[in-house]
User: Which sequence fits this backbone?
């Protein structure tokens, strides 16, 4: 085999290669275990003894030359955008490949949207407030005294205080939105306030340092506990089914009087009924109305708060709240 002709043919073929498939075929043809260079090497036994040295040197030179040219071509093709080699990476996926699948809203946001629509049909509008709050809106105007345990620094995310500035914190409840709305709007007021809240709880299957609440507020002339009970019952039946049962249990909150926890009766996996707490509620305390300049002798109102994650977990049978925030696509695509 003429070594010089072998090198020349390899150069000619390599210059015309345009695709990775052709380059791989070139490698097999010239550099493979059964390629032309291997065949030329096997022929050395047929070369006269006095010519073998020169033949071997020429063959080694050919191997180095062809191998170097192959590697150079491989680097050049690797640096060329795929679109130039016949593959347009900007094109959408084909049906026979993995097709493009649009995402969906997170199950928490889906639930908030559904609750917003539900209460909207009951006449409630949506209000919003800052997540970074001051003590007046988060505590004082809500009738939470200075020595109340809920105000302890270990139970809140206080921010480093600027010199001479008032203490600031991440809000621990969406009730602060009630105050901001009542400061700017006079009765009648009927709002819901969905949003994130923060408390330094130890994370486990049922607790998180960040979660979502939906606060409700209705203030007008002649609002009574009957209106509150009717509102909660309508919500529960619309959201969980017409046959669902609810109950109020006496409780205490600084910003409502009287106060109650409201429960919904669910049937467990074992077929037994169980009361599950969904939130707190009550009639707005007169001190709260006074703090925002509303006459409690003329107006009354009720307020309630729902834990959104609690509703999501109960509705979808989710046992661990951490599943909602770990962003596992296998979990999220179920919703």
Assistant:
């Amino acid at each position: 085999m003429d070594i010089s002709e072998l090198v020349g043919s390899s150069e000619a073929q390599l210059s015309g290669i345009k695709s990775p498939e052709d380059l791989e075929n070139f490698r097999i043809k010239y550099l493979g275990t059964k390629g032309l260079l291997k065949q030329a090497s096997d022929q050395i036994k047929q070369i006269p003894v006095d010519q073998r040295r020169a033949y071997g040197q020429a063959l080694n030179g050919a191997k180095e030359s062809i191998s170097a040219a192959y590697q150079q071509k491989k680097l050049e093709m690797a640096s060329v955008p795929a679109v130039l080699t016949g593959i347009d990476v900007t094109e959408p996926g084909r049906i026979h490949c993995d097709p493009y699948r649009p995402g969906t809203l997170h199950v928490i946001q889906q639930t908030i949207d559904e609750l917003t629509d539900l209460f909207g049909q009951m006449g409630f509008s949506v209000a919003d407030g800052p997540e970074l709050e001051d003590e007046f809106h988060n505590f004082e105007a809500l009738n939470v005294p200075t020595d109340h345990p809920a105000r302890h620094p270990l139970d809140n995310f206080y921010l480093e205080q600027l010199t001479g500035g008032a203490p600031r914190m991440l809000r621990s409840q969406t009730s602060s939105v009630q105050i901001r709305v009542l400061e700017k709007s006079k009765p009648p007021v009927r709002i819901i306030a969905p949003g994130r809240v923060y408390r330094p709880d130890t994370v486990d299957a049922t607790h998180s340092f960040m979660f979502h609440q939906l606060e409700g507020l209705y203030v007008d002339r002649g609002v009574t506990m009957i209106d509150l009970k009717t509102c909660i019952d309508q919500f529960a039946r619309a959201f969980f089914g017409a046959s669902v049962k609810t109950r109020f249990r006496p409780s205490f909150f600084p910003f409502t009087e009287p106060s109650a926890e409201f429960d919904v009766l669910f049937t467990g996996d074992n077929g037994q009924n169980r009361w599950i707490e969904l939130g707190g509620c009550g009639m707005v305390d007169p001190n709260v109305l006074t703090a925002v300049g509303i006459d409690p002798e003329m107006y009354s109102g009720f307020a309630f708060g729902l834990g959104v994650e609690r509703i999501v977990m109960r509705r979808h049978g989710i046992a661990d709240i951490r599943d909602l925030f770990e962003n596992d696509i296998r979990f999220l695509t179920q919703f």
Summary: The CA atoms of residues 39 and 313 lie 70 Å apart.
